[in-house]
Design brief:
heterodimer; A: alpha/beta; 5-stranded parallel β-sheet; 20 helices; B: alpha/beta; Elongation Factor Tu (Ef-tu), domain 3; Rossmann fold; 7-stranded mixed β-sheet; 5-stranded antiparallel β-sheet; 9 helices; globular; disordered C terminus; binds flavin-adenine dinucleotide; binds iron/sulfur cluster; binds FE2/S2 (inorganic) cluster
Chain lengths: 470, 283
Amino acid sequence: MTEDNKAKKLTTKKTPIPEQDPAVRAKNFNEVTLGYNEEQAVAEAERCLQCKKPMCVEGCPVNVPIPAFIKAIAERDFRKAINTIKEANVLPAVCGRVCPQEIQCEQRCIVGKKNEPVGIGRLERFAADWERECGMECLLPQVAPSTGKKVAVVGAGPAGLTCAYDLAKIGHKVTVYEALHGAGGVLMYGIPEFRLPKSIVTQEVEVLKKMGVEIVTNAVIGKLITIDELMEEYDACFIGTGAGLPKFMGIDGENLNGVYSANEFLTRVNLMKAYTFPNSDTPIKVGSRVAVVGGGNVAMDAVRTALRLGAKEAIIIYRRSDEEMPARREEIHHAKEEGIRFELLTNPKRILGEDGWVTGIECVRMDLSEPDESGRRRPVEKSGSEFVIPVDIVIMSIGTGPNPLVPESTEGLATNKWGYIVADEETGRTSKEGVYAGGDIVTGSATVILAMGAGRKAAQSIQEYLLTKK
Amino acid sequence: MAKILEKRLIRTPDVYYFKIDAPLISKKAQPGQFVIVRLHDQGERIPISLADINPYEGTISLIVMAVGKTTNEFVMMKEGDDILDLCGPLGKPTHIEKVSRVILVGGGFGVASLYPIARAFKASGSNVVTIMGARSHDLLVYEKEMADVSDKVIVTTDDGSKGIKGVVTAALKQEIDENGADLVLTVGPAIMMKFVSETTRPYGIHTVVSLNPIMVDGTGMCGGCRVPIGKDTKFACTDGPEFDGHLVDWNLLMSRQKTYQDEEKVSFMQWKKKHEHINIEGK
Ligand SMILES: Cc1cc2nc3c(=O)[nH]c(=O)nc-3n(C[C@H](O)[C@H](O)[C@H](O)COP(=O)(O)OP(=O)(O)OC[C@H]3O[C@@H](n4cnc5c(N)ncnc54)[C@H](O)[C@@H]3O)c2cc1C
Ligand SMILES: Cc1cc2nc3c(=O)[nH]c(=O)nc-3n(C[C@H](O)[C@H](O)[C@H](O)COP(=O)(O)OP(=O)(O)OC[C@H]3O[C@@H](n4cnc5c(N)ncnc54)[C@H](O)[C@@H]3O)c2cc1C
Ligand code: SF4
Ligand code: FES
């Protein structure tokens, strides 16, 4: 007993996870974090107190039975661990890598009150990778006999893929329509290889295909086929088209050569493999000094990608302070380790250019105001503090909006004033009968796990709808 | 995957006509729209205008001019080959309505994309005048086709080897002065569309231009195709490709088209080298 307590006391920190050395990884696109081996995973699992009333589960948007799967890892029953996770989360290999655990499960973990919380994300990833290694047979779920019902899913991001998985599992015939030439949504075109290897995403898509889901790529719904036409052919429809429309600041110089949206920059590199140019045909301007405007995950991905492409200096420009940066803490930490320069409390005023090309970015320093009624501290300009950072590439990463193609072409589909589709939070039901929606196209840019959760809830209500409909 | 049903050389040595099996796209496509094509797994996505649409056959036609690596690879494809990715129809269709007189101005192989537009205007009961220009007579394409769907065709060549000697804008000005026009629509190189817009500006004739900035996805996701139109910045792939020519910032458009000039050269040289190699081995 005392022995046990001693052991617990000794491990105030998470079991360290092997990572590529910062100096090395800043020059390659291989995954940064290498993952636990069995011994490390078991050691970390043993830090869990197996709470009777586990707070971590409440912090998880899809309520993964966390203590149960951790217990299974501690007992070396990895099969049971992964099955337990999959009851609630169909993309654990993805979520273990990209979920903001520090504001979800791990933030609530009781161990985290005094010490570092249990590394729940790392353990989730371990269990998922363990299963992936044993191949396709292990990944395939049991699929119920065909119900004869057909459902169309629009958009192959985490929301659409999860919805398709759940519906196919209960025997419905699902067809996923995707605008791009590859499935995966942001997981494929946005999040870089060094954070989420593309082989994981393609494997998940393969699983869906093996389950009988048909994936139709190059199908821009609203242009090639409308939602109304889909509803003539299918019994129900789920829209998970994401929030892919890049925003710009509207400042001078934003249309100069050398200014990218983060979406374009990342799509060229990830989806189009521009980092292997000229072996792949899509070019990218590498830049020797690159400024990325923004402080979210997208900005961190863009700036670290620029560094890996060979930029001599890669800089984050963010108008608030470190604390307010919305990116995952781990990404900020990794970025700093890799030598990314942070210009915080700084906002761009205009982009300077010569002969059509970017030469610099003029910025102004900011102060944070006293908290307003909402408790938020607004950034305000410090007058006279303007200065210029010489750069040759600027990447705008200040958020995205909803793509209008589907709402525009669908009569009677209600949207809010920003153009997001209005859907019930619990059921995903929209203003059109039989049409459901979820993920970023409903909530605005959020997270993978929330998009998945929305896809899952919609699948449940589609099932109810199909059962009650005549 | 989309099968190439027919391929024809329409202008020696570099402009080809392709008819492609695309039943779904052909049912939805409208004049003025385009598709995005990716030829192989390492390939880039390139936009190509619809040169014809045949919903009864379930086909679309494209006219491709070999200018760099991807378009050269494209024109080497044969009848029966499959195009890996064909995505469309993209962009907003041309706004077709009956007007008493519409002048269509095409430069080089851009004339081909005017064909379905001319046909639609003709079908609407509008009087259609086509002005087509090229450096020399052997660079003209689609003359006969355009004659079939126009009430009048005016040909210009820089060297005077056919039709009126001079540039399209001179012919355009003359045609407006003599017969007037309610609408001018132009497809071709940016520089030509710019001068067409400058020509019509003093007359206040609404002038529609079909812009061709560099694109990636074609769905509004990357913003690479953005162009300043008046006070706004628009995405050519979803808001366009057609815009009011009098509002376009032409210099910016043309400057952005050159973004990857150096990279395009590298890519094309590497491709050429590989090809010479194959040719030599083939002997
Ligand atoms: C660079 C980047 C990094 C991120 N990092 C993280 C992270 O670390 N952790 C995290 O939790 N979240 C992260 N996010 C956010 C997360 O990826 C998104 O919240 C999530 O992907 C939303 O899923 P979705 O299924 O709603 O939409 P998406 O993933 O956007 O997928 C939508 C799909 O629909 C397709 N589509 C769009 N319109 C049409 C149409 N008309 N017809 C057919 N198909 C269409 C799109 O091509 C796309 O494939 C990041 C986002 C980005 C861009
Ligand atoms: C809406 C639209 C319609 C078009 N219609 C046709 C058509 O009907 N027939 C045709 O032959 N061509 C058309 N183009 C142009 C065609 O897309 C380019 O010629 C092609 O991308 C060049 O690729 P490349 O690798 O062969 O040449 P590159 O060596 O890459 O480039 C050669 C030239 O093409 C331009 N270009 C390069 N990449 C792109 C791109 N992704 N998008 C647009 N322009 C690019 C460059 O500015 C450069 O001047 C159209 C372009 C647009 C935007
Ligand atoms: S809150 Fe922490 S210690 Fe408690 S069950 Fe969850 S992971 Fe284990
Ligand atoms: S081509 Fe990407 S937004 Fe237009």
